[in-house]
Design goal:
Radius of gyration: 30 Å
Order of helices and strands: HEEEEEEEEEEEH
Shape: elongated
CATH topology of one domain: Umud Fragment, subunit A
Strand content: 15-25%
Helix content: 25-40%
Largest sheet: 7 strands, antiparallel
Length: about 210
């Protein structure tokens, strides 16, 4: 009984871990939301699920990221117009509320004036540490407005690591139960073999009332 239960828990834990992977954040481009070396927990999503404000992990070899994934925030989606001045960033003419940016300054004196119309099926991405992030601003020669295809998104950051932690706990418990189940199965098989072989013959019973010795 323990062996099948352990196998099921192990399989379920591994599936959950696959759905909610964890990553170490490279670099400082997402400070203060994520510091260099922080563990970032994510969920796998479909391209159609990406929304403005999401922190996403993207595959962008055209940005020079040949290995691993870049971590950036979605500022504009297909059809949006992203602009900026020396004070803040605007999406479709509305000032963007960005309490997450480093120093509380959305432009940090380094953001060039933007005027980007995001093509359908693409995303405009910025890092939260605007003074130290190689993002869509600096790749406008490589693609329209420095945007990336929405299909480049592999995962989306989640606020809570509960899914990944539950996956790890489930997988760990599954391993323990599977090992216990295997041990019990082996012990039961050995006991059954011993019983089939039989032990040495027992002495005949002593008749009642007959003295012994």
């Amino acid at each position: 009984m323990l062996l099948p239960l352990g196998v099921l828990l192990l399989a379920g834990g591994l599936l959950l871990r696959s759905a909610y992977p964890g990553h170490r954040v490279p670099g400082d481009s997402m400070r203060p939301t994520y510091e260099h070396g922080d563990m970032l927990y994510a969920e796998r999503i479909e391209p159609s699920e990406v929304r403005r404000g999401d922190v996403v992990l993207v595959s962008v070899p055209e940005w020079g990221v040949r290995e691993g994934l870049a971590v950036k925030r979605v500022i504009g989606v297909g059809g949006d117009r992203v602009t900026s001045d020396d004070r803040r960033v605007y999406v479709n003419g509305e000032p963007l509320s960005e309490p997450y940016v480093a120093g509380g300054d959305p432009v940090d004196g380094t953001l060039p004036d933007l005027d980007v119309r995001v093509p359908e099926g693409r995303l405009f991405l910025l890092g939260d540490n605007r003074g130290n992030s190689l993002d869509s601003r600096f790749h406008q020669d490589a693609s329209p407005g420095g945007t990336v295809p929405v299909t480049a998104v592999r995962e989306r950051a989640v606020d809570s690591p509960a899914g990944s932690l539950a996956a790890g706990a489930g997988a760990g418990l599954g391993v323990v139960l599977a090992l216990i189940g295997c041990g019990l199965a082996v012990a039961g098989r050995l006991t059954g073999r011993a019983a089939r072989r039989g032990g040495p013959p027992l002495p005949p019973p002593v008749p009642y009332g007959v003295p012994v010795g």
